[in-house]
Amino acid sequence: MFVGGLDPPQPPGKNQDPFAVLSYRLREALLGQRKAAVWQPQKDKTFQVIIVDKDVRFPPRKLVPPEDPQYHAAHSPLSPLTPTSPLYPDGLIAPIWIRKHTTLVPSVYVVFMRIYESPQAARAPLEPSEADREREAEERRRDTELCADIAQRKRTTSERGVKLTVVLLASRKMLDEPSLDNRLTYIRRQSGLDPRAALFVLSPVSPSEVGDFVRSLQEALYEPAVEYYTNHSKRVRRKRNRHSQSAAAYSAPPIAGAAGARPLRPEGWTVRYEYKMACFAEFRGEDEVALKHYQDAYSNLLIMFGSTAILPPRTKRWAEAKVLADCISLKVCKLYLYNNEHSLALSHHNSHLRKFADFSRGWGIGEETFEFWSWLARQHRAFAELLEQGTRTTLKIPTHYNLGSSSVAAAAAAAQALDSGQRNVLELDAMRALGLNPLQALQHPGFYYYMAARCTERRRERYMSTTKAEEQANTTSPGFTNEKKVDHLALALELYTRSYELFKAHSPPTTQGHGRLTLWIAYRIAQTYFESGKFDMAVRFFERIAKTYRREKWDSLLQPLLSAWYSCAKQMGDTGLGVRLLFEMLGHGVRTQQGDESSTQADLMEILKSTAPEGPVVIESSETQPILDASVVFWKHNVIVNEATAFQLSIKAKPTVSLSALPFVSLIVHFSSDIPPVTVHHIASDTSEVAVIQRIDLGHVEIPFAQDDMKSKKVEGCLRWCPSGTIVFSGSISSDTPAVVKISKVILTLQEGAWKLEFPLHPSSDRHNVHPSWLSSADPIQFIPVRGEHHTSVSFHYRPHRVEVSLSHYAPAYLGEDFPIVIHVTNADDRDMEMIVDALLQPSEMDVADNFISLGDERSTSLVKAVPLGIISPGVSTSVTLYLSNAGAAYDRVVDISVQSRALSSTEPASPTSPGSPTAPAVVDRDETLRTLIVPTIDPIHAEQQVTYRRSSKDQLGLADLRTYEGDFWDDGNAGEAIVTTVIRCMAPSGISVESIKLTRQDVKRAKVLDCSIEQDQDDFLSEWLPGDEFCGRCRISLSNSDEDVSEETFDGPGKYEIFWRRILPEGTQGSLSVSRFPLPQLRPPTDGLVALLDIPPIAKLHVPFLLRLVIRNGHPSRAANVVIQLEIDSSDPIIVSGLRSGRIPIILPGAEETLVWKLIPIECGAVKIPRIKVMDRRKDIHSLASLEAEPDHEGEIVRIVDIRSDERMETSGEVPTWDGAGENQRDGNELSKTPSSPIILVLP
Amino acid sequence: MPPQLRLNAVAFVSPQNHPILIRTLAQPRQDELKYHYIAHTSLDVIDERIAAAAAAKSTECYLNLLYTMEDVAVYGYVTPLRVKIIIALALTDTVVRDVDVITIFRALHTAYRLSVANPFLKLSTPLENVNDHAVSLSAGGTKWKAFRRRVDDIGRALGAPVTGAAANVY
């Protein structure tokens, strides 16, 4: 889009014409919206704007003026058919053609113009005056001038089919003028503007509104612009079609004055037309169409290149075509990338490279020429730049790594489909699922920059070789002269640097931009610096790279780096760095000259001899490889003090380099602890040849007694190493105090001239490639591999004490006794020992501190500490008894017993000479003997108790009975009695001797012991009980009614059995007195509801009357009872009854009782049945009442009759009493003996 | 039949990123250093892929194409015990089937397994760290030829011209 009529820019200032400001803002808005860029995939409707003069002239369409009769036959000035054209006669297309369409000829021309506004005169509104008329005439005149101006422009634009749009600038006030519409219509008609989108009016507005205007203006003009290029395309297509139809019969049109030159071939014309159409399509934003045309142009170009007849190599046209092909190829790549067709783009790029590499070979500029590599580097670079531009905005580099098993499955399925020959439409997809063409995997532009840099390096190599050839031939070709001007290394460096930056940007976030890929590029950069002679830069790079390579122990990469680095140092004359590097190279076994193992040391010696150092030099090898591998082996790890053990320090040289010339003067072995260092001084050996294995004896090393004795020991030996030679320093070591000794470091000193170099070696640090070994025999040489742990240090200990500890006891222990454990301690050593005993009772989860141990005076639930045994002389034994008191449950008790001994040696160690590390053994000669004892514990006496309850037949005292008010009155009313039966069994395997047994009474509120069987026959119990012996005691307890609620029926037993016993020891003696206690069980007497108690004597005499008493007792807390009694006598009964046969007794209130008495006379001897008595309760509860309706003849519940002679019940189950029929039986508790259906009396004669 | 893959170089790298064996199978052998660099730089991409795989809870050993550089395509594989296997295939303009690459990797993995299983590797190493990677590193050392031979066999099966003499010594 051309924009005319905007005044030259003036920065907006004060008091300025609003139109000048508007014009300035319009310029800003139009120019600022779009920058022409390589990568522009977005298709928004913006134009490339060029500000031109209002009277701009377009380049002529043809050279001849339109009036000329030859006008129609003439061609464009850029056509190959025009003799003055640069393309004449056989050029394809020139860059100027593109320039014409991008900068010289617009698709739309916008002109900004001022519309005339008459100066405002103050006038009366209702007074049309002469001035108005004058003003209108003036306006009309000015508008006509404007129209003429526009019409002239319109002519030039319509000649080229360019749309002309006029924007009239008017003041805001003008917009409101009613006459404006008429004037605008007039202007448009007069100037012949298009009806649509050709005339706009704009008044000075704010910048944002200017932006809106610019946007709407472009939107309105977009379509005409597209149309403009479409027309161009159509024209070109017409020409192409016409051309291709006549191509077969095409003969070159006769061109005067160009007899020698051949005209453009039909293929060339096709390229030309396709290229033009592609360009126009690109202008229109139709990427697919552009791509198609570019591809056609490209394939036609390939055809042209295919024949040397069409395009003779190394001509001007050939060179132009080559550039054109490269450009088109790049365009194709770009258009593919716009569409995210990464692999297609890359595959096109690659095929372009391949095809032209093939062509180049044919043209004699194959891989052996610098031209080829220069071209290739340019291609890679252009592609990389394209990608870089793209990645800045929209282009995403695809990842080739997709996770998930589904892809694998898909691949397998696809492979099957392919193998079975089903090659169909899906093949492409299938192939994609199968795998990847690595050539079509797009990577980030750093890779392509790298390629370009590599190609530039090749180019340089070829150039260098050509230089030699040219020098010999003494001729120079023009290409070579050009090449001479190129600074290859600077070029490569630039490419590498860009690649480095991109690699850094694309490296994974975890590496923080210091990935290995970037290091590699950095290495290439360093190499390039090195080659271009910038050694200081190279050294800086080498330093940083080497750090990582050293850390990663990737020696194969480090070695060439060191060589290059050393060369740099040599060039720079940095001797310090050079020496350091040479030593590192020695450490890595790198030779400065291949094939000469002593080349490195020779270089080194040369430096050392010829220069002087700035100061003493220490070659620290903590992160680099040391020049010699040191390893140390102590023959034994655990040694008793004052005992010597052997050690060997092996220092081994690398196999690939020789160190034999290096003048080492001394070697100092430093030990940890207070052992003075050992110095080995070099003495020249007799033979010139250095043995592979040498041995130097260091003698015996020990910690000196006194401080002033700390003198370094001196030894002499030959300190020269041949390749993979080893010097073994052997010696023995001892210590009189406990200590851990290792060789902390070995310092090797080299002296040559003014140089004095120190090499600290650390034999203890683990290097994975050093396998320690022990030189077992010097002739023949034999090594024993040392594989055990801790071979790098020796630990000196005191001799362990020979203290014998034995424990004696008689398991199992019984609960309740103090169980004795005798600890016998014997000093079997030859020194006096001071000993103490600790005992620890392991806590258990089962009891809470019911157990004790006691030792001497100490008593504790867990630990008894430091009970002294005194000083024990050699051969003397002593013993101490530990008592274990157990209570609680029966389980195994665990006791740890520790006997600590301290030797009372005559030579007490002097004050410790060194503070000693925490790991160092104690300086005091102390030892400890540990025993763990598990004591099974059992209960010696087992007791089982059983309780039964009996009802009382005693009469209840009346409410008003005065006795009940006495303080010590025992109201045993109807609560009855409890009988406790206790079975005591002896479980102790060794037996116990029982000293006494008794029942201790205890005051309990509602129970008291009436009598107890063991109180009568206690003597029977007092004897020795053996395992399995059982004894039984019975005890009668009277229960009383409580004043409180009867349902609280549980209470403690009113006493306990106490058994005093002693353990019977194997030798017949008895242990200490122990006591076991068994409390009487808790009592829970059962309760009754309504019950009838039958009281008859056990024996009667024939014909002597006796009484039968039936007590009906209502134990229910709240219900009265309505009782009916029936006595059924059979005539055959051997008994005569006098008394109530059948009747109803008065209602019995809760807690009340009624007694009935019968007199009976037995008339037969033997066991006679008492006549059956039926007692029934007629009172019903509500549920029963309901059922009574259905069962009218129901007589009532039968009340249980209990014979109190055989009344025994277990305790209640604790259920809440219920008053239904089922509940009643339960409530009675479990009868121990079933009451017979009819009680029996024994009648004696 | 898919086109024959040409194996240019094989690298085994220990879990601690130390080289175990780097074997160049391509002729001529002048570019051996290049393959050392390729093996080393591939570790960057492999670390990235392993992290991605761990994040996705994938147990896939095959790490796909790592990158292409100059004339080779570099593929990666990580064994369950984190030994990394890197191969460089000659770059051809064809689809490389993942199945084929995985087959090569499996064969190489087997070769490694068989070689490390050699009990004599541990003969002179300290006892306390028998499982240390020093053992696996020594498998690629010059002293042990079986590993190298197995790798060469795989190379030969893929048509690489392998000569026994020019052993690439690490």
TrEMBL record, chain A:
<feature type="domain" description="Gryzun putative trafficking through Golgi">
    <location>
        <begin position="617"/>
        <end position="902"/>
    </location>
</feature>
<feature type="region of interest" description="Disordered">
    <location>
        <begin position="123"/>
        <end position="142"/>
    </location>
</feature>
<feature type="region of interest" description="Disordered">
    <location>
        <begin position="1210"/>
        <end position="1239"/>
    </location>
</feature>
<protein>
    <recommendedName>
        <fullName>Trafficking protein particle complex subunit 11 domain-containing protein</fullName>
    </recommendedName>
</protein>
<feature type="domain" description="Trafficking protein particle complex subunit 11">
    <location>
        <begin position="317"/>
        <end position="587"/>
    </location>
</feature>
<dbReference type="InterPro" id="IPR021773">
    <property type="entry name" value="TPC11"/>
</dbReference>
<dbReference type="Pfam" id="PF07919">
    <property type="entry name" value="Gryzun"/>
</dbReference>
<dbReference type="Pfam" id="PF11817">
    <property type="entry name" value="Foie-gras_1"/>
</dbReference>
<feature type="compositionally biased region" description="Basic and acidic residues">
    <location>
        <begin position="130"/>
        <end position="142"/>
    </location>
</feature>
<feature type="compositionally biased region" description="Low complexity">
    <location>
        <begin position="905"/>
        <end position="922"/>
    </location>
</feature>
<dbReference type="InterPro" id="IPR012880">
    <property type="entry name" value="Gryzun"/>
</dbReference>
<feature type="region of interest" description="Disordered">
    <location>
        <begin position="905"/>
        <end position="925"/>
    </location>
</feature>
Automatic annotation (TrEMBL), chain B:
<comment type="similarity">
    <text>Belongs to the TRAPP small subunits family. Sedlin subfamily.</text>
</comment>
<dbReference type="InterPro" id="IPR006722">
    <property type="entry name" value="Sedlin"/>
</dbReference>
<protein>
    <recommendedName>
        <fullName>Trafficking protein particle complex subunit 2-like protein</fullName>
    </recommendedName>
</protein>
<dbReference type="InterPro" id="IPR011012">
    <property type="entry name" value="Longin-like_dom_sf"/>
</dbReference>
<dbReference type="InterPro" id="IPR044760">
    <property type="entry name" value="TRAPPC2L"/>
</dbReference>
<dbReference type="Pfam" id="PF04628">
    <property type="entry name" value="Sedlin_N"/>
</dbReference>
<dbReference type="GO" id="GO:0006888">
    <property type="term" value="P:endoplasmic reticulum to Golgi vesicle-mediated transport"/>
</dbReference>
<dbReference type="GO" id="GO:0005737">
    <property type="term" value="C:cytoplasm"/>
</dbReference>
